[in-house]
TrEMBL record:
InterPro entries reported for this sequence: Spore_Ger, UPF0353/GerABKA_families
Similarity annotation: Belongs to the GerABKA family.
Name the record gives this protein: Spore germination protein
Transmembrane portions of the chain: 317-339, 411-431, 443-465
Composition-biased stretches (Polar residues): 521-531
GO cellular component term of the entry, any: membrane
Chain segments carrying region Disordered: 1-21, 506-544
Keywords: Membrane, Transmembrane, Transmembrane helix
Family matches, as Pfam families: GerA
Presence of keyword Nucleus: no
Basic residues: compositionally biased ranges: 1-14
Superkingdom, taxonomy of origin: Bacteria
Length: 544
């Protein structure tokens, strides 16, 4: 099912608004030369706008022209399927039978064009919109309409392995910057007529295409309507990345935690759509948005469902432990070494005091310096060229850490704690959740410096209360933990076998809950194997 509500969904973006002054919103003239001059004026006579004048009919009596953007249109398609088709003798005979310009327009549109996509343009606004997107415009003398032929092209990146979410086992293809290529990657996985596609244009100047995909028989209609409404309310001149759309449509602006999930893996998007979620694909970016989103979703990886459930459960538990270390590691060190010496074993306490004897800074300042240094190294490794970025991060951390310890600026134990905290952040699959954890880490460090473990406890209470106050398109952010949903615990912290996960997440959708029929799969109670059956039959035969 496909819907293309371009104008309907753009009332506030400015894309279809008539300002009363610009000639772009006027009707197309009947005079061909006037229209061509107007196009040159609107495009500032740009060199990549190409015009080709020709005449139609057996006696070449009807002037016509095509206009296209050389940098956006497929020139081979323009030459083969438009020019050659229109200038052929059968097309000339069709044109000769037309009584007037309107009849010629209809005949060309229905008989002379060997293209799959042909649209009518009644005014300058729609015509320029199609032209700037890469379509080819056909203008006829005496006709107040134009034909837009689907010739959109341009160079695009080939489908390749995702760079941010790699897996050991599973599909190796990721989304690219082409909208329709990304849609095809999803449709290849979900071959169902219930997969609904709605197209929007966001940005009054950029006219960026945004595709919304969902399963109409699974997704919550209220969530779909809310997503549609928020996209309609975007009023900005240009959108270039899905992160801009994410920031415009999320309801929780004052929180470090992401409430909209993003990924560049088609298999992840497809599985989320099948759970009842809505996906937003923005033209020009490989990162696709998914909503509604819950906290547990950021600790799940597509590789969890491609390995055995027991191994996936262990790895997922490691991710949650890593997140706790990321948030509380340095703050616990500060609290214990500053306020709560009695909680440290005596041999370790003696070692820590010996190490801190030559350090001139308090534990908080010492940890803060190390954490900031590690963040600088991390950022430098990301921004540097790929060939040397990883080397700079590793060597820089080793050299600076060793030099800082030898100079007596920091203690070896704190260096280990900070290194463990940094490594723990890389164990979290979602980068934006890892960033949120890194931000919370500094807040807990400040609390522990002032109040020790009491500050950490108060911080945890405030953090849990804040996370419980969040929601994503009406869905509680902490679901299925709060509110507690027993059925959904099968794929939250744990990952149980597929034959036990018979229902979709209840917090996401209440429609079509069952995704597996009763009796599907082989449970642990099905202990009889084909070999055993064959052996039993053999024994029975011998006894007979």
């Amino acid at each position: 099912m496909i819907r293309y509500p371009y104008r309907k969904h753009n009332k506030k973006s400015g894309a279809g608004k008539n300002n009363g002054n610009s000639p772009r919103y006027l009707k197309i003239e009947a005079c061909l030369e006037t229209n061509l001059r107007q196009i040159k004026k609107l495009t500032s006579d740009s060199p990549d706008f190409l015009m080709r004048r020709f005449k139609l009919g057996l006696r070449a009596e009807v002037p016509a022209a095509i206009v296209f953007l050389d940098s956006m249109a497929k020139t081979d398609t323009v030459n083969e399927l438009i020019m050659r088709s229109m200038l052929s003798r059968p097309s000339a005979e069709v044109a000769a039978e037309a009584e007037n310009a309107e009849a010629l327009y209809v005949r060309i549109q229905s008989h002379a064009l060997a293209l799959g996509e042909v649209k009518d343009c009644d005014d300058w606004s729609s015509m320029m919109e199609q032209l700037l997107m890469g379509d080819t415009i056909i203008l006829l003398e005496g006709c107040e309409k134009a034909i837009a032929c689907g010739t959109r092209g341009g160079e695009t990146r080939a489908v390749s392995e995702p760079t941010t979410q790699t897996v050991v086992r599973g599909p190796k293809e990721g989304f690219v910057e082409s909208l329709f290529t990304n849609i095809s990657l999803v449709r290849r996985r979900i071959k169902s007529s219930d997969l609904t596609l709605e197209m929007f244009q966001v940005g009054s100047t950029s006219l960026t295409n945004v595709a919304m995909l969902y399963m109409k028989n699974i997704a919550n209609p209220g969530v779909v309507d809310e997503v549609r409404k928020r996209i309609e309310n975007i009023n900005i001149d240009a959108i270039f990345e899905s992160g801009m759309v994410e920031e415009m449509i999320q309801e929780n602006h004052f929180t470090p935690f992401p409430t909209i999930f993003n990924t560049e893996r088609p298999d992840t998007i497809s599985s989320n759509i099948m759970e009842g979620r809505v996906a937003l694909i923005v033209d020009g970016t490989p990162f696709v948005l998914v909503m509604p989103t819950v906290f547990a979703q950021f600790f799940q990886s597509s590789s969890d469902y491609e390995e055995r459930y027991d191994m996936a459960t262990v790895v997922r538990l490691i991710r949650y432990i890593s997140f706790i270390i990321l948030i509380l590691g340095p703050s616990l060190y500060i609290a214990l070494t500053t306020y709560h010496y009695e909680m440290i074993p005596t041999p370790l306490l003696i070692s820590i005091l010996a190490q801190r004897e030559s350090v001139p800074f308090p534990a908080f300042l010492e940890a803060f310096i190390l954490e900031i240094t590690f963040e600088i190294l991390r950022e430098a490794g990301i921004r540097m060229p790929r060939a040397g970025g990883q080397t700079v991060s590793v060597i820089g951390a080793l050299v600076l850490g060793q030099a800082a310890v030898e100079a007596g600026v920091v203690t070896p134990l704190l260096t280990i704690v900070v290194a463990l905290t940094g490594i723990a952040s890389f164990a979290i699959p979602a980068y934006n959740m890892a960033v949120a954890g890194r931000l919370c880490r500094f807040i807990f460090m400040i609390l522990s410096a002032f109040m020790g473990l009491y500050g950490i406890t108060l911080g945890l209470i405030a953090l849990i209360a804040h996370m419980n106050s969040l929601s994503s398109f009406g869905v509680p952010y902490m679901a299925p933990f709060s509110p507690f949903v027993l059925e959904s615990q099968k794929d939250a912290v744990l990952r149980l076998p597929f034959w036990m996960m018979r229902k979709r997440p209840k917090s996401i959708t209440s429609k079509n809950q069952k995704r597996m029929k009763d009796g599907s799969g082989i449970s642990s109670s099905d202990k009889t194997t084909p070999m055993q059956e064959g052996g039993n039959q053999g024994v029975s035969a011998e006894e007979e």
